[in-house]
Amino acid sequence: MQAAKMTRAQYGVLIAAMALAAAALVWMGQSPDPAAASQAQPPTQGHHAPPPTKGSETFQFTYPDQKRLPAELVFDPTPPPPPPKDKKVHEYTLVVEEGVEHEVAPGIKIAAWTFNGQVPGPILRGREGDVMRITLVNKGTQPHTIHFHGVHPAQMDGVFELVPPGGSFTYEFVANPYGVFPYHCHSNPASKHIHNGLYGMMIIDPREDRPPMRELSMVMSAFDLDRDGDADFYAWNGRAFQYADHPIDLQQGEPVRMYVLNIFEEMMAPHIHGNMFQLYRSGTSTKPHELTDVVSLGIAERAILEFKYDYPGPYMFQCHFSEHMELGLMGWFRVNGTEKKADASPAKPAAAAGHAGH
Ligand SMILES: [Cu+2]
Question: For residue 161, how far is its CA from the centre of ligand 1 (angstroms)?
């Protein structure tokens, strides 16, 4: 589907089609029938036209009662803290399951393949020079693996040693170098295993901690529900618009460190509004490479963004590819003033309607 060229009316058709497709997916446990989806009719609502997408201020400020993702489903963007320096072994267990219900947008549920029941998988954290010991338990019906980025022996690379259904395998390596890394299943076809949800972020801290800050981690991905090669939803941390429905509260002047990873097979361009950030490409340096407000990340690329807001108010953070933003890759920082506990909920703009994302 060429969602980029859609009118609002067509977007309504898309949502209806996706709802039907997702229902079929859940019921049948297999790919939905595109023919059935194409017969779906747009929802008949009280409005004369379907609401604009959540990527626009019009939606955010004009349709406050629009269906939102339940708060309990929101992916906590706070990574685990840096590990204590005397802890030399960092152990995790990742359980793979198939057919886990995952709500990618309000009411749109897919049968995901998951690490520990979630998309993306858990945020793993260790320290340079320490041992990472990660056990994969395969509760699925087909072989799975974990492939980590970073330096490690070939037999820990998660490509050749397929873990059979009912089996387990422990990956162990010395974390090297420090930085931000993806991990994902590498079982064939990897495109299917990754797309279905088997991916996550690993943070390796330098021996000397980075300066303490409020930390956020964000995995950028997308979901192509009918597998027609064109993604239907894009997301920060696995659910479209979740931080639009539930903004992230920050404090004026509070230093923030955001770990960002693009795991999808398109270019992404994370961008924060009303601010600039210090960019640490791949997180492999403690000295910033650049002061900017947007960075392009190809597939599997990642970065650390450090910033603080000088002024209170609502600020969008988004992927600068407009289609990605309009289909879910946007959210809000609600920057609270330090002087008094100001109500920083998004004020209704007088003339900003429709002027989103720039
Ligand atoms: Cu797999």
Answer: 12
Q: Kind of pairing, strands 179-184 and 147-148?
A: antiparallel
Q: Dihedral of the CA atoms 305, 287, 179, 296 (nearest 10)?
A: 40
Question: So what's the pLDDT on residue 4?
Answer: 42
Q: Ligand 1 mean position to 255 CA, how many Å?
A: 37
Beta strands in the chain (DSSP E): 89-105, 108-115, 124-127, 131-138, 147-148, 168-174, 179-184, 199-205, 214-223, 233-236, 248-251, 256-262, 270-272, 277-281, 290-292, 302-307, 313-319, 330-336
What does the alpha-carbon distance between residue 126 and residue 136 come to, in Å, rounded to a whole number?
17
Does position 118 have pLDDT exceeding 90, yes or no? yes
* pLDDT tens digits for range 56-71: 444 444 445 567 888 9
Structural domains for the chain: 60-79+214-358 (2.60.40.420), 83-209 (2.60.40.420)
pLDDT digits (tens, 9 = 90+) for 233-270: 999 999 999 999 899 999 999 999 999 999 999 999 99
Q: Using the mean position of ligand 1's atoms as its centre, give its distance from the Cα of residue 93 in Å.
A: 15
Model pLDDT for residues 125-169, shown as the tens digit of each residue: 999 999 999 999 999 999 999 999 999 999 999 998 899 999 999
pLDDT above 70: percentage of residues in the chain = 76
Task: Pick the closest to residue 335 from 253, 245, 238 (CA basis).
Answer: 253
CA–CA distance, 90 with 83 (Å, rounded to integer): 8
Ligand 1 centroid to residue 188 C-alpha, Å: 7
Return mean pLDDT, the chain: 83
* Nearest to 335, CA basis, from 252, 214, 245, 246: 252
